[in-house]
Amino acid sequence: MSSTSTSSFTPLAPAKKNVIVDGVLRYPSTGSKALIVGAGVAGMMAALECWRKGIDVELIEKAASNAPFGDGVLIGPSAFTTLHHYPSMLKEYDEISHDVYMTFAGRDGTPIIPPQELEWNREGAAVIGAYPLRVKSLLGRPELAELLLNQCKRLGIPITYGITIEKYEEDIVKKNATATTPDGRRFTADVVIAADGLGTKSHALTLGHPVRAFKTGYVVYRVMYSTDRLKDAPVSRDFVRNLERPVSFAFIANKVHCILAFTKQNVIIAITTEEEDDLATTDTWSTPVSNETVYSLLPEPDTWSPLIKEAILHAPERSIVKWSLCFRNPQPCWTSPAGHVIQVGDSAHSFLPTSANGATQALEDALSLPECLRLGGKENLGKATKVHELLRYQRVSLIQHVGFVNMQDIHIEANKDERKLPPLLMGKWLWAHDPEKYASENFRKAYAHLETGSPFENTNLPLGHKWSDWTVEEELAKQKAGVLTALELKNNGDWSIS
């Protein structure tokens, strides 16, 4: 399809009738089918959006059944820009989400700055893409997974469990792709979406060789449990009893920070520190640890707020899980040679928790890709995935970088008089974004760029930002040399919130 111009697409056909299921209005059929490997957050949201965009879709998942687990997750507004299209899911979201505010404090609980709303909920903040939705960003991971699964069921999207994929292939002549199981079963579709996480086998096709994640040198200890366990914890018990709305604390100290969130129902803990174990390359590493072990990891434990002490020691024994934080350097290629396999979520990009954006970016992928597939149409699916990649890569790479500079920013002893940036500054460029709208408005220009080399520049970055690629090795070398990389990065372009 050489020399294709931006006006060469067949106009989208008008709807012949309205298809409405569970209050969701579906676009006219594109005649194409997507297979999604992985029924996690990215996979299920991509399935919902593919269905809504008129693409037949099927999900396969290696787990034997839906068994969501985990702690809490912070989801930014850019992940919820299409939520209003799903009235049942919107209602359920409003019931299970928590309107949390943030408190940044030193290890003893002394505030660095006054308690405040998340950036997008502050007075004078830029308008979000999900407006007029009040984005209540704290959700339990199990509840989020159940939210998406329930909506898939209401729309009749098929999900098959117990399917492990070990190989991805594409047929350039037939313009399709296949995911194959160890016992030889083959699942074929016009496009295969690899949403199967860090351990995906799709890199052998997208990059031509397997790529293993490496340990970053950081580890996080995570748990979520019921506040009922705090009945013998005097400080935390009274704090929860008097809680008017959910709150998330960030306790900051040298080489460690602790996120502690309270709702009326749950306690959520995430403690990130440096890892002293063997840093041999591995894709995943998780181990239950004792409460006393976690508490002893805090430097000078008795100097910490009693809230964090009680929260750790009153967790169900060995419910706290140690996760070694693994990462892949930013990866510019998420697609197979002809574009009929595309990676989304952790398959394409991993994040440190300090980006506060891993799940959000997985969901942004799931909102952008189906719109690109719809606009490309069945004959252009292979190029549509590459348009999605072009629209997303620079933005995602920058947010990955944010996770590393934030680690530097909040792994120093708290001193409000010496801080040069607000803690964990994100900016409107990040959370005011609308990934579906961005794909709609930029698809044809990005397509023409891929076909003819015509000019194209992404605008889903901070205004005025001079983008450049980066690696973890370069970032760590700068930090070792004493370069304030957080200051360097967040003075590059407009990171304001209004």
UniProtKB/TrEMBL annotation:
Organism from which the protein derives:
Daldinia eschscholtzii
Q: Does the keyword DNA-binding apply?
A: no
Name any one GO molecular function: monooxygenase activity
What cofactor does this chain's UniProt record say it requires?
FAD
Q: Which InterPro entries match?
A: FAD-bd (IPR002938), FAD-dep_Monooxygenase_BioMet (IPR050493), FAD/NAD-bd_sf (IPR036188)
Annotated keywords:
FAD, Flavoprotein, Monooxygenase, Oxidoreductase
Instruction: Specify the protein name.
Output: FAD-binding domain-containing protein
Q: Which family does it belong to?
A: Belongs to the paxM FAD-dependent monooxygenase family.
Top-level taxonomic group: Eukaryota
Keyword Flavoprotein carried by entry: yes
Q: Give the signal peptide as a residue range, or say none if absent.
A: none
